[in-house]
Amino acid sequence: MVLVRPQLGQNIGKAARAMLNFGLVEMRLVAPRDGWPNPEAGPAASGADQVLRDATVYDTVAEAVADCAHVYATTVRKRGITKPVVTPEAAAQAIRAEPGRSAILFGPERSGLETDDVALARTILTVPINPEFGSLNLAQAVILVAYEWSKGEGLASPPTVDLGAPAPHQELEGMIGQLDDMLEAARFFYPPERAATSRRTLRTLLTKAGWTSQEVRTMRGVLSALDGAKRRR
């Protein structure tokens, strides 16, 4: 990821954070406005210190991409340069398929890449975006491209939530029976001809949730407490 003439240290830090989120660690900086290192970058990186520590600085874009066989310029503007235009997804696929190093250029926050910067690239990378509002900040642009690249990496999958083992059917039946007795005593099943339908609906409701044994015990405790309070009254 090559940040061309970035203006704010905070934005460099946020870009580093976006990169490391998706497994990218090599950042190159071209003529950062406020010099480098920048004390404002660290806090904004939120722990992506590795990316900032290893970032390298160049005077020109040409120097920054000199060892790269494939150079992509991120821009949403139409320029007087005829080059292939791809989406981040297509660029990520091409980067994996093509031998040699690849560089992705991101322009300054205020103005984006200049025409001369784009001229150094072989391909223009454009994010499909609302034509009425095509304004992405630097970190947003980096994270979109990094995310598409990460799809082909073996990054950790989102953690699954351990819902616990489902309760045995016998436990569910005990809870349903307890509730049925309480509802019968409270004359809930009225009129009598609707009792079967009401019981069926309740059973469907209570078995749909996938209760765990702990949840069944908790609910039965609630029912017992309610029943005891009623008896005391």
Explain the layout of strands and helices.
Layout lengths: L1 E3 L4 H13 L6 E3 L10 H5 L3 H5 L2 E3 L2 H4 L5 E5 L10 E2 L1 H10 L4 E5 L8 H5 L3 E3 L12 H13 L18 H17 L9 H14 L4 H20 L1
Protein name: rRNA methyltransferase
Family: Belongs to the class IV-like SAM-binding methyltransferase superfamily. RNA methyltransferase TrmH family.
InterPro entries: Alpha/beta_knot_MTases, RNA_MeTrfase_TrmJ/LasT, SpoU_MeTrfase, tRNA_m1G_MTases_N
Textual characterization of the structure:
- This protein has 233 residues and is α/β, with parallel strands linked by helices.
- It folds into 2 domains: 2-150, SPOUT methyltransferase, trefoil knot domain (Alpha/beta knot, 3-Layer(aba) Sandwich); 169-232, Helicase, Ruva Protein, domain 3 (Orthogonal Bundle), CATH 1.10.8.
- 45% of the residues lie in helices and 10% in strands.
- The chain contains 10 helices and 7 strands.
- The protein has helices at 9-21, 41-45, 49-53, 61-64, 88-97, 115-119, 138-150, 169-185, 195-208, 213-232; strands at 2-4, 28-30, 56-58, 70-74, 85-86, 102-106, 123-125.
- The chain has a 7-stranded parallel β-sheet with strand order 3-2-1-6-4-7-5.
- Strand 1 (2-4), helix 1 (9-21) and strand 2 (28-30) form a beta-alpha-beta unit.
- Helix 1 packs parallel to helix 7.
- It is elongated and about 85 Å long.
Annotation keywords:
transferase; 2 domains; methyltransferase activity; 10 helices; Alpha/beta knot; alpha/beta; seven-stranded parallel sheet; tRNA_m1G_MTases_N; Helicase, Ruva Protein, domain 3; Alpha/beta_knot_MTases; 10% strand
